[in-house]
């Protein structure tokens, strides 16, 4: 750690800086963990970013990491305090998915990535708030109450990984895990001024990650910098035989290429991402970011993704259809909530699910059931799967001409809590992120400015398994700009 | 696209979610709005387009047909751990209301 940072409060340091400080024994992981736990205890009532705080376990893990460091056996993230989205199963720690249905669910096993982070020596501070079953773009559907955006506490943090985003932005952890089915990592990262990466479908194991839409779901890192995201992805990525769609491609060291030059990089700007509905100030911030890339040696050209406007309708058939199948497991029999005094098995199922699920989750299950039901399957589900291929083909064609696609992450900055009550209006907030999930591509959101004092996100979409390139581009941008260093006002 | 009370009753039964009659008007309106948005898909020509189920068009990975679950004491321990979180269980079985008279 450079001397210039030795007086910086611990909660303002990045992972890369903390690892230096731990290695040089400027502080111990136990001190660092206690520092973060004290902040959570004192400040999280302002944000509601955590559902469960695991203080004792965290301190135990921190002491183990300190010992490992003394014995020169420290893992890649030894002693670094992170948080897991409450969608990842944690052995012996309640995993609620922000639903009444799982309010009492204590899994008897760890998700793959929870195991990987523990093996790397990371310290889990607790489980973060989210939209119920990851269905939402505002973190308002949580059974445990809405999360507030640290940049403006009357605004949403985005969703569904809103608790992870708010916890990092309020400096109540240095990094967190998220999941992204239609934008649930990138959108909250954009709205909270963070770096968030949705990896290629299959890059990160879904084992132990409570399923929403299995052909779209993907876990990924949420951090303050692209460098930190690379450090997390190094731990998360890789083949896992327990996930039947886990990718077997080799995992590179994502930090190794961060300093590569962007000379000659071809950036495509999809004209459909700069049209009607985009806030002019967000467009200005994105154009300014493109200028920075040109200064770094990149070339820019306009491209077209002609089926963009079909992405939201396509997604809102496929995702609910898959959700209706996945969420059928919550039946009040094997774990989770069960209604009182069921009079027969049908009553047990239907009342358990009526009482255990929130409104948005029920709506999506019902839509999905409808789209899959006899007489409607071809018109909705099969049709959506065909359109999905057209959307993917747009990207395949674009990547013949350019290396990476850039645009806004969201059309608007963080909106006020309670401002959007119509589901379809809410769905349209995800207009620039959803197509990426349908195509299965990786995409990164990085801070690129402000609009009305609220953070603006720039989205970079890469080709399949091009995470290293996205992180390289993000890191290079963060070496010539300081948007990612701004912190929310009024946080201690 | 309109959604009738009968439609709601049918899909609620299929989805095993109880919907009370006072919830039906708002629910049918909201579901109709979502389906109206989805109807945009009907305007697209998809003749000959193969439906896409996996973004990487990957096929199911196969493994050798051998037992991979633990056996013996480990299996009993795993069963006990899973039954411990059930709402109701007895003698290694999940309990539900009587199904057969």
Identify the strand order in the major beta sheet of chain A. 1-3-2-4-6-5-10-11-9-7-8
DSSP E strands of chain B, number: 2
Radius of gyration of chain A: 21 Å
Counting helices, strands and paired strands, the structural category of chain B is: mainly alpha
CATH top level class name of the domain at 3-265 and 466-485 in chain A: Alpha Beta
Report the CATH architecture of the domain at 5-43 in chain B: Orthogonal Bundle
Shape descriptor of chain A: globular
pLDDT < 50 stretches of chain B: none
Topology of chain B as a string of helices (H) and strands (E)? HHHEE
Q: How would you describe this structure to a colleague?
A:
The complex is a heterodimer of chains A (492) and B (101). Chain A is of the alpha/beta class and 492 residues long. Chain A has a domain at 3-265 and 466-485: Amidase signature (AS) domain (Amidase signature (AS) enzymes), CATH 3.90.1300.10. Chain A is 36% helix and 13% strand. Chain A has helices spanning 15-23, 29-43, 55-70, 112-119, 162-169, 186-191, 226-236, 280-295, 311-326, 345-356, 359-372, 378-398, 423-427, 434-439, 467-480, and strands spanning 50-53, 81-85, 123-128, 175-179, 195-198, 219-223, 266-270, 299-303, 404-408, 443-451, 454-462. Chain A has an 11-stranded mixed beta sheet with strand order 1-3-2-4-6-5-10-11-9-7-8, with helices on both faces. In chain A, strand 2 (81-85), helix 4 (112-119) and strand 3 form a beta-alpha-beta unit. In chain A, helix 2 (29-43) packs antiparallel against helix 3 (55-70) and helix 9 crosses helix 12. The model of chain A has no long low-confidence stretch (mean pLDDT 97). Chain B has 101 residues and is mainly alpha-helical. Chain B has a domain at 5-43: Histone, subunit A (Orthogonal Bundle). Chain B has 3 helices and 2 strands. A two-stranded antiparallel sheet of chain B has the order 1-2. Chain B is flat and about 60 Å long. Chain B starts with a helix and ends in a 7-residue tail after the last strand. The mean pLDDT of chain B is 92. The chains are: A alpha/beta (492), B mainly alpha (101). Chains A and B meet through helix 9, helix 10, helix 11, helix 12 and helix 13 of A and helix 1, helix 2 and helix 3 of B.
């Amino acid at each position: 750690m450079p001397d210039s940072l030795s007086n910086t409060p611990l909660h303002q340091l990045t992972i890369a800086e903390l690892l230096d400080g731990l290695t040089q024994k400027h502080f111990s992981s136990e001190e660092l963990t206690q520092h973060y736990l004290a902040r959570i205890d004192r400040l999280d009532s302002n944000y509601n970013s955590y559902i469960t705080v695991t203080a004792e376990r965290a301190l135990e893990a921190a002491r183990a990491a300190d010992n490992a460091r003394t014995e020169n056996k420290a893992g890649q993230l030894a002693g670094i305090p992170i948080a897991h989205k409450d969608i990842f199963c944690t052995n012996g720690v309640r995993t609620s998915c922000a639903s009444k249905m799982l309010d009492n669910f204590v899994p008897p096993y760890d998700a793959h990535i929870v195991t990987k982070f523990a093996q790397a020596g990371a310290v889990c501070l607790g489980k973060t708030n989210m939209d119920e079953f990851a269905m939402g773009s505002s973190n308002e559907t949580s059974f445990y109450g809405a999360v507030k955006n640290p940049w403006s506490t009357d605004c949403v943090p985005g969703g569904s990984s809103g608790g992870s985003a708010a916890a990092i932005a309020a400096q109540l952890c240095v990094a967190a895990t998220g999941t992204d089915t239609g934008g649930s990592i990138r959108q909250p990262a954009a709205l909270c001024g963070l770096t968030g990466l949705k990896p290629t479908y299959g890059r990160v194991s879904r084992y132990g990650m409570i399923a929403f839409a299995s052909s779209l779901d993907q876990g990924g890192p949420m951090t303050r910098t692209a460098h930190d995201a690379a450090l997390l992805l190094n731990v998360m990525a890789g083949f896992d035989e327990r996930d039947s769609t886990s990718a077997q491609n080799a995992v590179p060291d994502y930090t190794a290429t961060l300093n590569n030059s962007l000379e000659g990089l071809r950036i495509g700007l999809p004209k459909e991402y700069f049209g009607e509905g985009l806030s002019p100030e967000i467009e200005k911030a994105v154009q300014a970011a493109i200028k920075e890339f040109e200064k770094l040696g990149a070339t820019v050209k306009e491209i077209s993704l002609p089926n963009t406007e079909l992405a939201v309708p396509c997604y809102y058939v496929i995702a609910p259809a898959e959700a209706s199948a996945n969420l059928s497991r919550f039946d009040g029999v094997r774990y989770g909530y069960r209604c009182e005094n069921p009079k027969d098995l049908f009553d047990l199922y239907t009342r358990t699910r009526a009482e255990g699920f929130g409104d948005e989750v029920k709506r999506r299950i019902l839509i999905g059931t409808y789209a899959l039901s006899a007489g409607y399957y071809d018109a909705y589900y099969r049709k959506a799967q065909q359109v999905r291929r057209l959307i993917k083909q747009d990207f395949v064609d674009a990547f013949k001409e350019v290396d990476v696609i850039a645009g806004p992450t969201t059309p608007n900055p963080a909106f006020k809590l309670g401002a959007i009550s119509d589901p379809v209006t809410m769905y349209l907030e995800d207009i620039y992120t959803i197509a990426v999930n349908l195509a299965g591509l990786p995409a990164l959101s990085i801070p690129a400015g402000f609009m009305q004092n609220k953070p603006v996100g720039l989205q970079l979409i890469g080709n399949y398994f091009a995470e290293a390139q996205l992180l390289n581009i993000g890191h290079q941008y963060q070496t010539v700009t300081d948007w990612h260093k701004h912190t929310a006002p009024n946080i201690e | 696209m309109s959604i009738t009370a009968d439609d709601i009753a049918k899909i609620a039964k299929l989805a095993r979610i109880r919907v009370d009659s006072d919830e039906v008007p708002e629910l049918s309106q909201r579901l109709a709005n979502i389906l109206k948005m989805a109807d945009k898909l009907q305007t697209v020509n998809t003749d000959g387009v193969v439906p896409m189920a996996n973004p990487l068009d990957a096929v199911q990975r196969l493994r050798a047909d051998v037992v991979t679950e633990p056996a013996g004491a480990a299996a009993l321990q795993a069963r006990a751990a899973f039954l411990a979180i059930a709402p109701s269980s007895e003698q290694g079985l999940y309990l539900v209301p009587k199904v057969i008279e």
